[in-house]
From TrEMBL:
Pathway(s) of this molecule: One-carbon metabolism; formaldehyde assimilation via RuMP pathway; D-fructose 6-phosphate from D-ribulose 5-phosphate and formaldehyde: step 1/2
Spans traversing the lipid bilayer: none
CDD domains linked to this entry: KGPDC_HPS
Identification of the protein by name: 3-hexulose-6-phosphate synthase
One annotated GO molecular function: orotidine-5'-phosphate decarboxylase activity
Entry keyword annotation includes Lyase: yes
GO BP: 'de novo' pyrimidine nucleobase biosynthetic process; formaldehyde assimilation via ribulose monophosphate cycle; L-ascorbic acid catabolic process; one-carbon metabolic process
């Protein structure tokens, strides 16, 4: 089980500072969608250059032209690129093909997918590396989380690794870990803490002890 730190509300210097604090406890750094919007793929490039030992995920949430966008993120140094599960099959297949060519990985984000079980099976058959359930900020604000959705994909996904994201905090982590994801994605549960290092260390302990 791996821990991914999601960076959403930072600029590049702040991102570097946070990663420096917690790098010993995480496996993957996510350059979040808002960071890419604000800073471009330069954020991916600078973080990969500064922390080459960590995997970097570019959270582009690709919806079309995945071959091209996976190529551009890969050129910037991304190891993993996200594509939306709601995208066309041709888009997901194009992204997977490009990722294979470049030795990169695809994480499919199932945010807003209504027919989760059926779509997860379809996406799983397309050769993606990770399938991730994700409660976005707008539904987190309405009190939702990803736990039930995770149990659904855990049951039906046979090939890809499974991942879970959306509002995971130290208090909710034991329940998440017990459900057995391959990847746990945490943003505010680390970046929103006064002592980020302690939060990441405790999370790593729970994850690696599982
Ligand atoms: O992709 C995202 C938002 O669209 C976030 O990176 C993801 O939800 C993890 O952050 P948090 O733990 O703060 O919810």
């Amino acid at each position: 089980m791996k821990l991914q730190l999601a960076l959403d509300l930072v600029d590049i210097p702040e991102a570097k500072k946070v990663v420096q604090e917690v790098e010993a406890y995480i496996d993957i750094v996510e350059i979040g969608t808002p960071v890419v919007i604000n800073e471009g793929l330069r954020a991916v490039k600078e973080i990969k250059e500064a922390f080459p030992h960590l995997q970097v995920l570019a959270d582009l949430k690709v919806m079309d032209a995945a071959g091209y966008e996976v190529m551009k993120a890969s050129e910037a140094g991304a190891d993993i690129v996200t594509i939306l599960g709601a995208a066309e099959d041709a888009t997901i297949r194009g992204g997977v093909e490009e990722a294979r060519r470049l030795g990169k990985k695809i994480l499919v984000d199932m945010i807003s997918v209504k027919n989760l079980e059926e779509r997860a099976k379809e996406v799983d058959a397309m050769g993606v590396d990770y399938i991730c359930v994700h409660t976005g900020y707008d539904l987190q604000a309405a009190g939702k989380n990803s736990f039930e959705d995770f149990l659904t994909i855990k049951r039906v996904v046979k090939n890809a690794k499974t991942a879970v994201a959306g509002g995971i905090k130290l208090a909710s982590l034991p329940e998440v870990v017990a459900a057995g994801p391959d990847l746990v994605i945490v943003g505010g549960g680390i970046t929103g803490e006064a002592d980020k290092k302690a939060a990441a260390a405790q999370m790593q302990q729970l994850i690696k002890g599982a």
